[in-house]
Amino acid sequence: MQTTFSLRTSGQGLYEFTGSIAGWLAENDVADGLLTLFVRHTSCSLLIQENADPDVQQDLKAFFNRLVPPADDPSMSYLTHTLEGPDDMPAHIKAAMMPVSLSIPVTSGRMVLGTWQGIYLFEHRTRPHQRQIVAHFQSER
Q1: pLDDT digits 0-9 by tens, 110-122
Q2: Nearest to 118 by CA among 38, 54, 34, 64
Q3: Rounded to whole angstroms, how far apart are CA atoms 13 and 61?
Q4: 3-class SS of residue 38
């Protein structure tokens, strides 16, 4: 079973879409198996992260922006891929450091996530984008 989710971003940050995935699994009346998520882009990532305190998402965004500043920052003067703006190559670097796919066990139709865990797309670009995440569920049968 497979589908593609479309997620509109409005710039850098974490976008939770746990509910969309849970709804898709429920609509399809799945049992036990493995859910694989894959983002079809090279300048964003997928994460499982805390969904209780929004400060966590802010701190992650701040950390990665400090770790990999925009291309117009003097510390990034070595970059050559700069035609698509000062956020583009840093976005590719961040995406290379973080996962672009996730595997999540499903038991009795529900993802086996921890109490405070949510599924996020981490947008690394500063302008809005339409992102596609492919979801594939493999039943144990």
Answers
A1: 999 999 999 999 9
A2: 54
A3: 6
A4: strand
